């Protein structure tokens, strides 16, 4: 994952408890929609663009998270295209990709690294 | 470049066959011996033209791509797209593109395909007249169709019918115009074509035969067609699909041999009369024949690669078997469809007009070999018959057994794929044999379809052989004494039924508990909803308490997600009976929130286009008026349809509405492996279509007949009679048992029909369990059902009254703003999603 020190702009998104356990929610940053996932079982947080590259639906935050051979992923609720939450690549090797963002937790708040 | 010079192969045409040539060459040869340059006229790299029509339906452009642009670069292939080759200089061995680029070659491969043939009809040049060959053609058709009402397709062949279906799917009234006296004249005989015509007319496609179009009339755009016989047809869009013409322009310019009616002449080695120039695919004329199908083109690519890499291969005549895709009527023809290749061959025919099925096979004079045939209305046996014909298998004593097609018996023609010889071709698009596939399954241990596809490429073309792959996998595992365990996914080594028992016996109420006790890893989108459904069936607790994130989005938000990310709202209307006041409420709510309303196929009303944040408010108002969740989003009981029954109907024997309401209220909210639907009809006229339901109840003089395991949907199946002349109490008892038995033993996402089809002992066994209680579990099943019924509560009511749950229906967690990407447009006085994604880019 991205080295934390490279991130200059940490956006304070919301409180930890605003996010469902083992699931995602969408945050708004200026005009951007970003899906943030609280992968409680792995004790990890992830974030990626909310728009699914398949049919351009604003939906990934409502997708289901899980693992494929140990790789954390989110599956789009529309047609179940799944993306690695680490690399953003399509899990089945298809030609779709999403942008991922680093996440950190501090003082009960979720921060998303935007640059 | 240097002394060990590479051979420079230039390929003109980056279509299906041109691409396949590159792929096979790369697979074959150390790439350093060759330098490959490809020119394609189309703006994008090669895509799957065969699946073009699915572009309308679901696939997007990328799904059609045969390989992404990077692939060519990675293989060291230089690819120029959007560049038409306009000149060939055989003397100096160069070609020149429209952009003025000149490239020299050592070997030139012409894979220029064909173009749609457009007859010189008066008016064909009008805007609004299209051909059907490329993605651009389809995009143009789609955008023009939005302003059109009625389409005419000129040409009733394979492609014309596919185009007609697409026009219908675009919402146009559609007519097919065929010059000949029957549809698909190359594949079907008169009776077969008639059966096809009847079936297509059922689908509301108009078919006009014997029609010679003389003019496409109208002011600048089409308005009508005139025919030679004086008839006239209104149409504001025209698709011409009157055959193909090989693209032999370059050959003609330079005196390469071309056929009288076009096509670049090649020999068995794919050589033209210039030793350094080859032609493959639809532009090649082999022994007087243009092959308008992809499989022979791939074979040509294979032969040429062999020959260019030092081998010696020959293209011989190729099978022209085809199956019509997507049209809604099964049609296939295979091998020698007309029985013309052997003298005294015999035809065997089944012509079932009532069912709209026509099957014809041609067998050799001695009755030993299958030569070919055609299937209309039911092509389930196509793969099997094709295999038998191609591999020369011996036939049953009475060949008619091959086509009787008793679906309940062993698959198709009674042959097991696993018993085929190793060299029989299973996937004809990619020429993959049974042996190749078994190798991957048995030696490499690949035991799922996806891996088999990846390793062998089988099933990646027209995908027609996938059911056979599935059978082969199962049969191979069985043959080796391996249990074919339908485990859910990599996280649980258990079947659905096993998990259900574990959950109940150990009283595990959450996904995490189950995963920790018997699973591994952290779950995925396959096991989570499956377990959610099991938990719901086991305990019927609220689906959102502690388990919202393991639900599919529809269950998580208690509504169906739709294009553009909005949701639909369908309140329960038991038995389809609704008071005027409730109708008014629906009208008022829909108006207030700007929702689109439509009467559903399930006798209730759908309000569509609600944003996620509006759902709780909408439901609050509906619940206030006495509505409750209709579970249209869940794998749960949907509707129990009813006819009007004896209160009103002069034929009605009993009160079907009351009974339907009772049943629907009894099982409302019941979660199951798949959705459940029921129906109650007041007499045999069956206006509630109860025999098309998972359970159907039909009044008799004496009581009620109970039918089970029917459905409409993808593979319609009629329900089967389970018990007759029951009183209401007994009927409910049987239903309890039946439903609970299904819930406990079916695999995830199997409807009751699929469950029954797989059940050993079939209907007889089910009768024994439910009616005779042969397993002695009847009472237990009834009690389990009663527990589920006792704890039923409307999910939406709980959400509406629970501020914590309500909070989850916000689009953003850090802002009250609503989703700004949701956009609507007006449509017949209501609002519908404004197209998003690729659709509105054009
Ligand atoms: C709304 C409705 C169409 C309509 O406007 O009439 C509809 C709409 C959908 N149907 Fe249906 N079906 C509707 C009646 C039917 C019927 C007719 C009936 O129930 O009598 C059938 C065939 C009968 C049957 O199921 O046996 C039907 C067979 C399907 C199938 C195929 C099921 C199968 O076993 O093959 C699916 C796909 C699935 O469930 O996996 C499906 C799936 C869908 C989905 C959920 C697709 C999706 O995931 O978006 C659609 C959701 C729309 C929405 O947002 O609400 N729908 N669907 C109908 C709602 C009925 C209701 O009041 O609840
Ligand atoms: C809607 C549709 C459905 C079909 N369904 C089936 C089916 O179910 N089963 C089946 O077997 N077949 C089907 N076919 C036929 C199948 O698509 C063709 O047989 C196959 O595409 C032929 O491949 P090809 O490479 O020879 O030609 P193409 O795929 O047409 O490729 C030729 C390419 O060369 C390009 N080209 C031509 N001239 C030049 C030039 N001078 N310079 C540069 N580029 C040039 C063209 O633009 C084109 O991209 C269908 C076809 C269509 C249109
Ligand atoms: S409503 Fe049903 S039939 Fe219609 S498009 Fe959706 S799933 Fe298909
Ligand atoms: S829109 Fe996401 S998978 Fe199709």
Low-confidence stretches of chain A: none
Number of strands of chain B: 39
Write the CATH fold name of chain A.
Answer: Rieske Iron-sulfur Protein
CATH class of chain A: Mainly Beta
Give the distinct bound molecules: siroheme, flavin-adenine dinucleotide, iron/sulfur cluster, FE2/S2 (inorganic) cluster
Assess the beta-strand content of chain B as a share of residues: 15-25%
Task: Calculate Rg of chain A over CA atoms.
Answer: 13 Å
Domain FAD/NAD(P)-binding (chain B): 8-284
Domain NADH-rubredoxin oxidoreductase C-terminal (chain B): 321-387
Pathway (chain B): Nitrogen metabolism; nitrate reduction (assimilation)
Domain Nitrite/sulphite reductase 4Fe-4S (chain B): 634-772
Structure description:
- Chain B: Residues 425-474, 487-536 form the BFD-like [2Fe-2S]-binding domain.
- Chain B: Residues 634-772 form the Nitrite/sulphite reductase 4Fe-4S domain.
- Chain B: Residues 8-284 form the FAD/NAD(P)-binding domain.
- Chain B: Its EC number is 1.7.1.15.
- Chain A has 115 residues and is mainly β.
- Chain A has a single domain (4-114), classed as 3-layer Sandwich (Rieske Iron-sulfur Protein), CATH 2.102.10.
- Helix content of chain A is 0%, strand content 48%.
- Chain A has strands spanning 10-15, 23-29, 32-39, 44-49, 51-52, 57-58, 64-68, 71-75, 82-84, 100-101, 103-106, 109-113.
- In chain A, strands 2-3-4-10 form a four-stranded antiparallel beta sheet, with no helix packed on it. In chain A, strands 1-12-11 form a three-stranded antiparallel beta sheet, with no helix packed on it.
- Chain A is globular.
- In chain B, helix 22 packs across helix 24 (762-772) and helix 22 (728-745) packs across helix 25 (778-790).
- Chain B has five domains: 7-114 and 246-308, FAD/NAD(P)-binding domain (3-Layer(bba) Sandwich); 129-242, FAD/NAD(P)-binding domain; 322-415, 2-Layer Sandwich (Enolase-like, domain 1); 488-539, no CATH class; 560-790, 2-Layer Sandwich (Sulfite Reductase Hemoprotein, domain 1).
- Chain B is an alpha/beta fold.
- In chain B, strands 3-2-1-7-19 form a five-stranded parallel beta sheet. In chain B, strands 9-16-10-11-12 form a five-stranded parallel beta sheet.
- The interface between A and B is large, with 46 and 44 residues.
- Bound molecules: siroheme, flavin-adenine dinucleotide, iron/sulfur cluster and FE2/S2 (inorganic) cluster (FES).
- Residues 12-18, 39-42, 49-50, 52-53, 84-85, 111-113, 132-133, 159, 162, 247, 250, 281-282, 292-295, 297, 322, 325, 462 of chain B line the site of flavin-adenine dinucleotide.
